Backbone:
C-alpha cells in the first residue's frame, strides 16, 4: 500500500438489525426498507448462494480439463474469473437495488449478476455456451447481458463505467429514480475511463454509484505497484463527489456505505464512489498458480468473509447451525438445477454465428 | 437524385445534416445530441447548426473532452432505449475512445445474442485538403468498415447527407456517419459547388447499404465515395469532352457494401479505378479489388487501378499534402492510363 | 528455415520471443520491457518468461492497467533513445490506447520530417480458438497494417518469432509484433506441434518485410500468416495424398508487405486462396486481392477465394466460434473448390 | 466554476527581485539561479517576445485569406491556435528549465516552444510549411518537433502527458537530473490520459511537472461545463502528489510555483501538478468568432497580463518607458527576421511527401 490513510465507516450496530423476508429471488426489497437496517439473513443467504455457485463452477470448469489442462477444453471453456471472497461487495450493494436499476460489471461478474437478480439458469447456460443462455451462447462468462435486469458486463477494464453513466443519463432524462451501479476492480481505477466517467457523472449530476472492488491484486500486480494512492476515495474529491473506502470485507459495512450512495443517487443528489477492500480468495482466473502472491496467500482462508459472518450471526442469534445447513442446501439445490439446465440445453448450430450482427 | 414533387432548397451538406437531426428530434423525444461544441457553437463543422437554439441545453449537450466517457454514455443511453446522436469532432480522435466504439458500440448487440440494441449514431468529420496535419486530416473509414457490427455511411452531397442521417437515426443499429469537411459546404473552406444542392425540406431517407450511380458511362468505372465523388464528377465532365465516358459509383455506405452496383458497373466497363482518400493498403481499395477478383477477374480488361493516399501520414505543407491526395489531376491521369 | 551450423534446441514460440528479448537486453542496456504482468508472472502468454529473474524490476516493469499511459511512456522513452519493448496484453485492448499507437507511435517520425526516431516494439497477443469471447479473440492485424508508420510482423513459428523479435528490437522504427496465443506453444492451450521447433540459441534476425515460402507447390497458392500457416501446412500434407500440390506463402510481415513473393507464387499456380483469421472485409484478404488485380488479373485461372472471419464478432460457444474460424476443414474445402 | 475553493500561492516580493542577464537566447539560466528570485526583465522580455510573435503570426495568417476567408489558403494554412494572454505560463515555467529538459506541448504550442529555446526561424519556417522548417514542412503548427531541445507537441488533447512521462522515465533511468514538463489545457484535464499519466508519474516517482493552462474555455465550452472541480489541484491529491492552483495570470506567481515543482522533480522527489488560471486573449483558433463567449470577452483586454506586468515593473523601477520600446523593437526585429527566413525558404517538392515514413 502507498501513502495516506483509509477512510473508515462505522460498522452498523448488528444487535438492532431485524430479520425480514426478501420479496424477490434476488433479494431486492421495497425501497423504503432498503436504506434502513439490513436483513441479515438475506445478506448471509445471498453470499452463500454466490459462493456455492462459484465453487460449483470452479469444480465443473476444471472437471473435464484433465489430465492435460487446456483452457479451451471441457464443458466450460475460456477464461474464468470467479468472485469467491468478494460476496460482501455484491450482496451489500445489491441489497439496495430495485428491479429497474442498472449494473455494469467487469470481467468478474457472477456475484453481481446473481445478487442483482439475473436468472441463474440462463446465466449458467450462457457460461456453458448454450442456446438457452442469456446471450444464446454468443457472449460467455465475461459478456452476460440481461436487459430485463439492466445488467451487463464487459471484459475490458473500466469500460463499463461510461456505459453506466449513459444508463443513468437515460434514467434521469426519463424522470425516473432509477440508479446505475458501475463496478470495477482497484486495478481498473487507473484506467482513463474511470476518470472520465467520474467527471462526467459529477458534472451532470447523474444517479451513479461507482463501486471499486479492491481485492489487492490486478492479476499478478499488487495494488502498491499500480496505484499511487492508498484509497480511491481520495480521488472522488477531485470530482467533488463523496468517496468512501470500506476497509472491512464485511457485508453489513458494505451495506451501510452502499445505502448512503444509492440513496444519494436515487434522490437526485448525484454520484458517489465506494471502494471496498475485499478479498480475492482464488486465482485471478482459473489456472492461475498465484506464485506471485507469496505470504498473502497463507492467510486467505482466515479472511474468508462468509464463515466470519456466519460466526457473527451465530453469536448474535440471527443464525443457527441448522439454518446454516438449510441455506447451503437450498443454494446447492438451486445451483444443481441451473447446471443441469445448462448441461441439458442444446449447443448452438455453427451457422447461428452469422446471426445478430445487426438488429 | 432529388425528389422533385417536394419543395426543395439549395442547402449545404452541413445544413442538411443538422436539418435531418432536427426533424428526427421533433418527431421523437428520445433523440438527443451530445458532443464537443455541438451546443451554442453548432458543431465545429456545422453539423449541429441551430439545434441548440431550438432544443436547448437539455437535448443538445456540450460535453467535456472525454470521448470515452461520452461515447460510452451514448451507448448506455442507447441501451436504455434513447437514440443518441453523438459527435466525435474529428474521426482522427477515434484512438482515445476506440474501445467504446469497437468493443462496445459494435459488439453489444451480437454478444447479447440479439437481446440488446444500440440505436446510436456516431458522427465524425473526416478528410484533408486544408493543411490540418497528420492528426486532423484522416478519413479512416476503412478502419471502421473492417470491424463487424457498425454500419458505416459516408455521404458525398447534401441530399445523401440528409437522407442517410435520417436513416441512421431511425436505424436500430450503431451507425457511424463520416462526413468530409471539404464537402460540408462551409463558408470558411474551399468547396466544390456540389457541396450545396437541392434538398427537400421534409424528412426522407436514403437507404443504408445502397450505392448510387452518380454518373453513367461506358468506358471506365470509378468506384469512390465522399469528396472524391465530387472530384470524380468534375473529371468525368472534363474527360467527356475528350471522348472518355466515365461511370461513377458513389458507394455512400461501406457497411453494408453494395457489391452488386460495383460488379454491374465493372461488368459493363471492364475498367476499374478505385479512388479513396483513406490510406491505400488494407482498406477500401483492397476490398473493392477483392469483390471483383473473387467474383470474376476476367471482368477486368486491364489491371485495376487504385488511387488513394500512398501509405503515408497526411503531411502539413500544401505541396506535400496535395502530393498525396487523390486530386482531379491524378484521377484524370489514372482514367487515361486505364484507357491507354 | 533453421540454420544448421548453430546449436539449436526445440523451444516454444513463447520461449523464442522471451529469448530474443533477453539476448538484446544483455547486449544493449537501453532495451527494457514494460507491460501488465510482464514481471514475476512472465507475461500472460509467456512472452517475458524468466526475464524478471534475470534483469530485475528495473528493466522488466509491471505497469498499472493504464495502456495509454505506459504505451505513451514507451514512446517518450524511445524518443529519448531507449529501446522499450512494451506489451499490450491482448491486441483487443488497442481501443483504450489507440491514440498513442496510431497518432503518436506511428506518426512522430514522419511529422518530425525524420528528425525524431521511435525505436520501440509493441507486442500483443492475438487470436481465437479457446472461447475467450468477442473482446479477447481478435487478430486485428489488418487494422494496424492500414495505418502508415508502423511495421507489423506476425510470426507463425518459434524460429520466426525469435528472428523477427530480434529484428524488431534492433529496428529504429516502431514495430508491432503480434503473436497468436494458439501458436505460442503454451502448456495450457491446445497446440499444433509446429509451435515447438528447433531454434538457434544465439541471436539471429529474420528480415522484416520478407515473406517465407513455407511450402512449395504447383496447383494452388495459399497466402496466409500466423496460426493459419500451421493449419495450412497440415492441410497441404493431407491434400498431397489426394494429389493436390499446395504452395504456402507465410507473409510473416504485413508492413512492409512482400508483394513479390505473393505474385511469384500466384503467377506459378494461377489459383489463390487467402486465409486470414482477421475479419474478412477491408483487411488482409482484400489487400492481397488488390496486389494481384492491380498487377495482372489474368494470372488468376479462377476467381480467388477468401477464407477469413465472415464479418462477425468472435462468438463464445465452441460450435459458434469454430463456425467462423478458418479451420483445416474449411481450408481444405476451399482448396478443393479452387481445383474443381 | 463549480464547487470548492482554489489554492492560493503567495506572490513573491517583487521589490527584492534583482535583474540578471540571461545566458542563452531562450532565457535558460544556470540551475543555481533558477530557483531563486526571478530575473524580472527576462520574464518581461520573454513574454513580449512571444506576444510579438503571436501578433505577427495572427496578422500574417489572415493577411492573404481575404476577401473570402478560407482556412486552407494563404502562406499559413490550416488551424491556428495562438497563445496570446498565456505568456506568463510559458515564461514562468520555462525560466526554470535548462537545455536538456523536455516539454510536451498541446495544440497551442508557440509560447512554450519559444520560451524553451526552439529556434524561431526553423519554427516559423515549419508554420509556413517550408523545407527549412523544424519538420521540413511535414508537421505544421500543431506538430513542432525539436529533438535538440527535447521539445514536441501534439494536436490530440492530453496525449502529450504520457509521452512526457516516458521522457522523464528515460531521464531517470539514465541517472540524469533532467525534468520533463507536460502541458495541457483545463479542458484536457478531463481526458483519460491525464489521469493515467499522473498515476504513472506518481507511482514511479518520475521527474515530471504537469502544467494545466486554465484559460476558462475549451473551444466554446466553459470550464463550468467541462470540469466537476474548481481546481485541478484537488485532483493531484488523488495521486498523492503536490497540486497547486495559481489563480493569477502573473508571470512571477507562475515562476514561484513552477520553481518549487521543477526543483522537486529535479531533485528526485517526483512529479507535481500546477494549474495556472490564465487568459485566452483571442479566439480558440483563428476564425473563431467567439459568439459563445459573451461578457467574458468584454474584460479581456483589461486582463492582458503583459501591460499589467509592464506597469508593475515601471512602478518598481525595473523597467523604463525606453526599455519597453527597445524590448518591443528587439522582439519585432527577431520576428521580422524569422518571417523573412520562412517566406524566403523553399517549398517542399510534392514527392518529398513519400519520404520519412520509416527511418
Ligand atoms: C483495458 C484492459 N487492459 C487489460 C486487461 C486484462 N486484464 C483483465 S482483468 C485484469 C486485472 C484487473 O484487475 P482489477 O481491476 O483489480 O480487477 P480484479 O481482477 O482484481 O477483480 C487485467 C489486467 C483488460 N481486460 N482490459
Ligand atoms: C482527443 C481530442 N478531442 C478533441 C480535440 C479537439 N480540440 C482541440 S483543442 C480543444 C479544446 C482544448 O481545450 P483546452 O484543453 O482547455 O485547451 P485550450 O484550447 O483552451 O488551450 C478541443 C476540444 C482534440 N484535439 N483531441
Ligand atoms: Mg483487483
Ligand atoms: Mg482551455
Residues:
Amino acid at each position: 500500500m502507498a501513502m495516506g490513510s483509509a477512510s473508515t465507516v462505522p460498522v452498523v450496530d448488528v444487535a438492532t438489525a431485524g430479520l425480514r423476508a426478501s420479496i424477490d429471488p434476488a433479494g431486492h426489497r421495497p425501497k423504503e426498507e432498503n436504506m434502513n437496517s439490513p436483513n441479515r439473513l438475506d445478506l448471509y443467504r445471498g453470499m452463500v448462494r454466490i459462493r456455492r455457485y462459484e465453487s460449483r463452477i470452479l469444480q465443473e470448469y476444471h472437471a473435464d480439463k484433465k489430465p492435460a489442462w487446456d483452457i479451451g477444453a471441457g464443458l466450460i471453456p475460456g477464461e474464468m474469473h470467479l468472485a469467491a471472497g468478494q460476496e460482501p461487495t455484491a450482496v451489500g450493494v445489491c441489497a439496495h437495488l430495485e428491479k429497474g436499476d442498472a449494473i455494469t460489471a467487469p470481467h468478474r461478474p457472477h456475484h453481481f449478476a446473481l445478487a442483482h437478480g439475473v436468472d441463474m439458469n440462463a446465466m449458467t447456460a450462457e457460461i456453458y455456451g448454450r442456446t438457452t443462455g442469456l446471450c444464446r451462447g454468443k457472449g460467455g462468462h465475461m459478456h452476460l447481458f440481461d436487459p430485463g435486469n439492466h445488467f451487463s458486463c464487459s471484459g475490458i477494464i473500466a469500460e463499463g463505467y461510461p456505459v453506466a453513466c449513459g444508463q443513468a443519463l437515460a434514467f434521469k432524462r426519463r424522470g425516473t429514480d432509477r440508479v446505475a451501479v458501475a463496478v470495477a476492480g482497484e486495478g481498473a481505477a487507473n484506467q482513463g475511463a474511470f476518470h472520465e466517467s467520474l467527471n462526467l457523472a459529477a458534472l451532470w449530476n447523474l444517479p451513479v454509484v461507482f463501486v471499486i472492488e479492491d481485492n489487492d491484486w490486478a492479476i499478478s500486480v499488487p495494488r502498491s505497484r499500480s496505484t499511487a494512492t492508498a484509497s480511491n476515495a481520495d480521488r472522488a474529491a477531485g470530482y467533488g463527489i463523496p468517496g468512501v473506502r470500506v476497509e472491512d470485507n464485511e457485508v453489513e459495512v458494505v451495506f451501510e456505505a452502499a445505502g448512503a450512495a444509492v440513496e444519494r443517487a436515487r434522490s437526485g443528489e448525484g454520484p458517489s464512489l465506494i471502494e471496498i477492500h475485499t478479498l480475492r480468495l482464488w486465482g485471478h482466473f482459473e489456472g492461475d498458480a498465484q506464485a506471485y502472491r507469496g505470504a498473502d496467500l497463507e492467510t486467505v482462508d482466515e479472511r474468508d468473509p462468509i464463515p466470519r459472518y456466519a460466526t457473527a450471526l451465530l453469536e448474535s442469534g440471527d443464525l443457527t447451525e441448522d439454518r446454516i445447513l438449510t441455506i447451503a442446501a437450498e443454494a446447492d439445490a438451486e445451483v444443481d438445477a441451473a447446471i443441469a439446465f445448462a448441461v441439458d440445453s442444446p449447443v448452438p448450430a455453427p451457422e447461428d454465428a452469422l446471426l445478430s450482427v445487426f438488429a | 437524385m432529388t425528389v422533385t414533387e417536394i419543395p426543395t432548397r439549395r442547402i449545404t451538406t452541413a445544413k442538411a445534416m443538422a436539418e435531418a437531426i432536427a426533424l428526427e428530434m421533433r418527431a421523437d423525444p428520445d433523440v438527443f445530441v451530445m458532443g464537443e461544441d455541438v451546443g451554442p457553437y453548432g458543431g465545429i463543422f456545422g453539423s449541429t447548426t441551430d439545434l441548440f437554439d431550438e432544443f436547448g441545453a437539455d437535448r443538445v449537450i456540450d460535453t467535456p473532452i472525454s470521448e470515452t466517457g461520452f461515447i460510452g454514455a451514448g451507448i448506455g443511453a442507447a441501451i436504455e432505449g434513447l437514440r443518441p446522436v453523438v459527435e466525435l469532432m474529428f474521426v482522427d480522435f477515434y484512438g482515445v475512445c476506440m474501445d467504446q466504439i469497437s468493443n462496445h458500440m459494435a459488439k453489444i448487440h451480437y454478444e447479447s445474442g440479439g437481446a440488446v440494441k444500440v440505436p446510436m449514431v456516431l458522427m465524425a468529420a473526416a478528410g484533408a485538403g486544408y493543411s490540418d496535419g497528420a492528426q486532423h486530416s484522416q478519413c479512416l473509414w476503412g478502419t471502421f468498415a473492417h470491424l463487424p457490427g457498425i454500419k458505416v455511411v459516408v455521404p458525398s452531397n447534401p441530399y445523401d447527407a440528409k437522407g442517410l442521417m435520417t436513416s441512421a437515426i431511425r436505424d436500430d443499429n450503431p451507425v457511424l456517419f463520416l462526413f468530409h469537411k471539404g464537402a460540408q459546404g462551409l463558408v470558411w473552406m474551399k468547396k466544390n459547388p456540389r457541396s450545396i444542392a437541392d434538398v427537400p425540406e421534409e424528412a426522407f431517407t436514403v437507404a443504408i447499404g445502397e450505392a448510387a450511380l452518380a454518373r453513367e458511362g461506358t468506358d471506365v468505372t470509378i468506384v469512390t465515395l465522399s469528396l472524391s465523388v465530387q472530384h470524380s464528377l468534375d473529371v468525368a465532365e472534363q474527360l467527356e469532352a475528350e471522348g472518355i465516358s466515365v461511370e461513377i459509383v458513389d458507394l455512400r455506405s461501406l457497411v453494408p457494401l453494395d457489391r452488386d452496383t460495383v460488379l454491374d458497373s465493372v461488368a459493363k466497363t471492364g475498367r476499374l479505378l478505385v479512388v479513396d482518400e483513406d490510406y491505400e493498403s488494407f482498406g477500401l481499395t483492397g476490398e473493392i479489388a477483392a469483390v471483383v477478383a473473387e467474383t470474376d477477374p476476367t471482368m477486368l480488361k486491364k489491371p485495376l487501378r487504385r488511387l488513394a493516399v500512398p501509405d503515408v501520414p497526411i503531411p502539413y505543407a500544401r505541396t506535400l499534402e496535395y502530393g498525396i491526395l487523390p486530386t482531379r489531376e491524378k484521377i484524370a491521369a489514372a482514367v487515361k492510363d486505364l484507357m491507354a
